[in-house]
Design goal:
Glutaredoxin; alpha+beta; Glutathione S-transferase Yfyf (Class Pi), Chain A, domain 2; 4-stranded mixed beta sheet; homodimer; globular; 4 strands; 8 helices
């Protein structure tokens, strides 16, 4: 392992604060107790060098020595390989972590992200489009996740990177009260957010952007 | 490695044929030349045992001996560990494959799936919702992917599981003519679909569902 450097935006508007995806990486690093430092890249007027690290111009990315990694899923999988606190080391346990890691991103967030976009834009809940995406999230996804989370504390036996991703995905649903009919999912988010590593990661992200406000005057 | 068994639906309607996600797994298995067999699970009246393998009631899943794996991303990553034809073995190469694998699913498909849903439902292109999701796909994603694909044959040096996922994601966009303004992306899909392993996987999926039509009479 080389020096770990997490790069995120220098500033973001108030809306996404507390939900920018560097949170997932900070959270994993804090859970593992791995040393790291944070660097900033401009949110506005993104330089060409940004796209060399993150082809879509998003944040974060992580460097580990000579390796530069983008996509929060890929970064967390990389960190999972570095720490038993983040991913089981036996074959079955690793498989469980990985399938739930992809499920968080590709089954649940695939449905929750468009739903959240409609919340942000204030789409009326009477439209066919609203009903389509609301059903995709709640009927096709949350209704199946709920009985799983009612039965277990964490997705893959012990707490893992799969929980960091799933809980962070569900946090954004909860922000718009989308978990009201899914109490086990809501309790899972509460349980995850109570972890000291989450609390520190969240506070650090908020402080990072607050410091940028001061610099902007 | 144990015996590899791919389980998919016994039947699906005409619409999704050629795009059901078992295609991704078939394609990877064919590229690697790994022996496997295909089993079926009911599309209608899904039994409880289905949810034990795939908590959201979707398909496919793969069993490898005593291991059962759901999520096409997790399955392809597992197969990538089994074959150099699917994933580089050096540290930098593996990292590139993994970040692009997640990018295909979490940056591109995250935007293309809601866009495709609106195509399926025939949403008018005059609405704010259409413009939101069309911009999310084309401005935020395809416009950044296009210069990458204009410069390289495959995403991570040699052909890999990242290309199977990215090409399959883009195929569904192309089905609705969404790549018209992105010729390098369109050429990439054409290049991927010309591979013998894709051709066989696609033909096998079509034959699988056609056989089910005969059984249904």
């Amino acid at each position: 392992m080389g020096e770990l450097i997490l790069t995120t935006f220098d500033w973001v508007p108030d809306g996404p604060r507390g939900y920018v995806r560097d949170l997932r990486v900070r959270w994993a690093l804090e859970e593992a107790g791995l040393p790291y430092r944070v660097e900033s890249t401009p949110f506005q007027d993104r330089p060409a060098g940004h796209f060399a690290h993150q082809p879509f111009g998003q944040a974060p990315w992580l460097t580990d020595g000579d390796l530069s990694i983008f996509e929060s899923g890929a970064i967390l999988l990389h960190l999972g390989e570095l720490s038993e606190a983040l991913m089981a080391t036996d074959r079955r346990g690793r498989n469980e972590v990985k399938e739930w890691l992809f499920a968080a991103l590709n089954s649940v967030e695939m449905a929750s992200l468009p739903w959240s976009l409609l919340q942000f834009t204030g789409e009326s809940q009477d439209t066919a489009v609203w009903k389509l995406f609301d059903g995709f999230l709640k009927t096709s996804r949350l209704s199946h996740l709920e009985p799983v989370l009612a039965e277990r504390e964490w997705l893959a036996g012990a707490f893992s990177i799969a929980d960091i991703l799933m809980a962070d995905v569900l946090r954004l649903v909860d922000r718009f009260d989308g978990l009201a009919a899914h109490p086990a999912s809501k309790a899972y988010v509460t349980r995850a957010e109570a972890r000291p590593a989450f609390v520190k990661a969240h506070a650090d992200q908020m402080a990072h952007f607050a410091a940028a406000d001061l610099l902007r005057g």
